[in-house]
Amino acid sequence: MHAATRLAWKTLIHASRWLFYSSLCVLADALDTVLSHLIPDIRCPAILLIQSSDADSLSDETVIKLIVRPRKLSPDSSAYQITSRTVAKISQDADEGATDASEANALDLVAKKTNIPVPRVHRVIKQEERYVILMDYIPGQTLAQLWPTYSIWKKSRVAFTLRRYIRQLQHLKATPATPPGPLSSQGPRICENPGIFSSMRSSLTPFASYAELAVFFNQRCKVALDHYKIPENDPSRKRRFDDSGPLVFGHQDLTPANIIVGEDGLFWIVDWSWAGYYPAWCEYATMLRQGDRKSDYNFWDCLVPFICGPYFKQEQWLSSIEVGLYYRE
């Protein structure tokens, strides 16, 4: 088969795949809109019931003392269960001297502006160069634990629910003055999304604007193309960071391990430490990169374009410049 023929077939397959997912997304959104009119849009009752914490009577000093290894929720977690209903999580902000905890800001925003079940923040404690966030403990199992046991129908129901969550998040658009990245009262913060920024995270500086974010990625693209010695007249030299849409709010680490199937039957979203304002397609790219690569998750990967939208071109562009993200001039 000639190279031109192979390219034509590849293009046709990609176009068909995009059309399939796009049509599926349109149908799902239409169904969701109809259901939202038939069923009153009310706040999650479980969230409304949680008004206080059983750790309210504990002093800040006592809370800090309770943060010990045996109380960790999981070996690689930074969250500790300090009482039967309360978790203390150490913030993971990369900025030195941060004036607030971005994850607490994210949880507050999502709790106030969406119907997505999330832990409620009860207190934020400043401890030296870090913050400790007291939030609700959500009893249940992670979707990572349950996913292999689910039927295709049940997995599809999860995908539909997550797509509804993503739609709500992406209605939270940044204002023109809002910088990309984590939420903060202090202004621009370092973007901590390792699914996109990879090993360069520690050497990044905050982006003051959406335009700065686009310039950064376009520069990294040039580094990658130069690294591979791509000719100056090659079509790939004209491809750019997609900033055609607004910055929208995203979780940026939406994996089965960060979804709790609660005892109440709800799908609770936890671990908002990398949440922030990014282009909508970034949620898709991070879900593919942060997802579990076990064989049980092959169907999960197939559902990601439906959950987030089929941003195939943007993700392929990002993959093509990865070498540029690892090296700095």
Question: How would you explain this protein's 3D organization?
Answer:
The protein has two domains: 14-40 and 141-326, Alpha-Beta Complex (Aminoglycoside 3'-phosphotransferase, Chain: A, domain 2); 45-138, Phosphorylase Kinase, domain 1, CATH 3.30.200. 42% of the residues lie in helices and 12% in strands. It has helices at residues 3-38, 45-49, 60-65, 102-113, 143-146, 152-170, 194-197, 210-227, 281-290, 298-308, 312-320, 322-326, and strands spanning 79-81, 86-90, 121-127, 130-136, 140-142, 247-250, 259-262, 267-269, 276-279. The strands form three sheets. A four-stranded antiparallel β-sheet has the order 1-2-4-3. The protein has a three-stranded antiparallel β-sheet with strand order 5-7-8. A hairpin with a 4-residue loop joins strand 1 (79-81) and strand 2 (86-90). Helix 9 (281-290) packs antiparallel against helix 10 (298-308). The chain is globular, with a radius of gyration of 21 Å. Residues 45-49 have low confidence and may be disordered. This is Kinase-like protein.
